[in-house]
């Protein structure tokens, strides 16, 4: 491992652990107003959606809204499965099967 | 003596429950970890570097983005700054969990902070949604974290090995595993109109801001979605209070 890699990994460790630890470390000394606590409830689903949507609609870097986009089709299918079944493992398996079938089965 | 034994039993029950609750998320992370390991060397990170990153940084999307930037020839300070920005969402997760950790000693908080990932946050949040007792909940957290961590490091090692055996594995499209896992995590949250609005706005803004440098679009889009969701939530609450006052 080169010294550049060591620097990179050390730097990434510091910023990642720092962000995760700062509030835990000072727990009890920072109080959030009610509106901020409500806002935090929206964070996980919104951030995850902001990661998913570009990954699915722009899988190759540009916007691709088309019935021939296997990422989009499989994601819509997984979304429907999740709405009906509400089970994570079922959603993952169904979504991956749909994607593999579209991409490598019929070659989209 | 009996009390000590039953506390120990309670702890191990919580630990195992934490690992079990995280299992579906671990399945989703397996291809992700393997692909990270596989992509490392083609992106310019050594096998040892990939393992060290999974061991010490332990941040799935942050590590992927780092690989992408390394491959694109970005400088080390840019990669570190981007990791910081992408990980800001953990600040918001931590804020959510503060009421559950403030009674614990620092050594526990350090350990829990290191293990704070999207997956463990999701598993632990649903534990707190069901039961809000916090005496042994940190053992549940530890079970979730160690299951996730062990799997992530193992999958990175498998990926590094596979990458050397089958150099064309990166063409298999397993990157979709991350998207489909996140879809399964988001849907259970969609139980109110403000939440639907927040998620739709966040998704649309992520497309609109995709061209912003350093993955800044992720932060901007999230803040827009949260602002819309929070405004609608406040409006609905005010309307409800107004109706109650009239009666």
Automatic annotation (TrEMBL), chain A:
Keywords: Membrane, Transmembrane, Transmembrane helix
Pfam family, one: AzlD
Coiled coil: none
Record-annotated membrane-spanning stretches: 6-23, 35-57, 63-81, 88-106
Full protein name: AzlD domain-containing protein
Phylogenetic placement of the source organism: Bacteria, Pseudomonadati, Pseudomonadota, Gammaproteobacteria, Oceanospirillales
UniProtKB/TrEMBL annotation, chain B:
Keywords, ordered alphabetically: Cell membrane, Membrane, Transmembrane, Transmembrane helix, Transport
InterPro entries for this protein: Brnchd-chn_aa_trnsp_permease
Signal peptide: none
Membrane topology qualifier: Multi-pass membrane protein
Keyword Transmembrane helix: yes
This protein's record includes keyword Membrane: yes
Major place of residence: membrane
Bilayer-crossing regions: 21-40, 47-72, 78-99, 139-163, 169-190, 195-212, 218-235
GO CC annotations on file: plasma membrane
One matching Pfam family: AzlC
Gene Ontology terms describing biological process: L-valine transmembrane transport
Subcellular locations according to the entry: Cell membrane
Similarity-based family: Belongs to the AzlC family.
Protein name: Branched-chain amino acid ABC transporter permease
Source organism (scientific name): Neptunomonas marina
Lineage: Bacteria, Pseudomonadati, Pseudomonadota, Gammaproteobacteria, Oceanospirillales
């Amino acid at each position: 491992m080169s010294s550049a890699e060591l620097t990179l990994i050390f730097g990434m460790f510091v910023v990642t652990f720092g962000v995760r630890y700062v509030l835990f470390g000072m727990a009890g000394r920072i109080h959030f107003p009610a509106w901020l606590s409500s806002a935090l409830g929206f964070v996980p689903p919104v951030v995850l959606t902001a990661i998913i949507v570009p990954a699915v609609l722009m899988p190759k870097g540009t916007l691709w809204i088309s019935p021939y986009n296997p990422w989009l089709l499989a994601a819509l299918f997984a979304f429907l499965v999740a709405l009906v079944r509400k089970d994570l493992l079922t959603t993952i398996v169904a979504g991956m099967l749909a994607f593999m079938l579209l991409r490598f089965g019929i070659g989209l | 003596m009996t009390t000590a034994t039953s506390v120990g039993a309670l702890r191990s029950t919580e630990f195992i429950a934490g690992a079990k609750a995280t299992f579906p998320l671990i399945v989703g992370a397996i291809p992700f970890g393997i692909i990270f390991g596989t992509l490392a060397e083609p992106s310019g990170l050594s096998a040892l570097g990939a393992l060290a990153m999974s061991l010490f940084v332990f941040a799935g999307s942050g590590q992927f983005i780092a690989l992408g930037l390394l491959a694109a020839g970005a400088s080390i300070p840019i990669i570190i700054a981007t990791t910081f920005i992408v990980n800001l969402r953990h600040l918001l997760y931590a804020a959510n969990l503060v009421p559950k950790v403030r009674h614990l000693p620092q050594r526990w908080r350090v350990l829990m902070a290191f293990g704070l990932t999207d997956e463990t946050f999701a598993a632990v949040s649903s534990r707190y949604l069901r039961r809000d007792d916090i005496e042994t909940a940190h053992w549940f957290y530890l079970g979730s974290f160690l299951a996730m961590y062990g799997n992530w490091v193992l999958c990175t090692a498998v990926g590094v090995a596979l990458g050397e055996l089958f150099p064309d594995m990166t063409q298999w499209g397993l990157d979709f595993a991350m998207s489909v896992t996140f879809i399964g995590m988001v849907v259970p949250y969609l139980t109110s109109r403000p939440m639907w609005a927040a998620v739709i706005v966040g998704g649309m803004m992520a497309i609109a801001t995709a061209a912003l440098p350093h993955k800044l679009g992720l932060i901007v889009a999230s803040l827009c979605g949260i602002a819309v969701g929070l405004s609608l939530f406040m409006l609905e609450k005010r309307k409800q209070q107004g109706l109650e006052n009239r009666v």
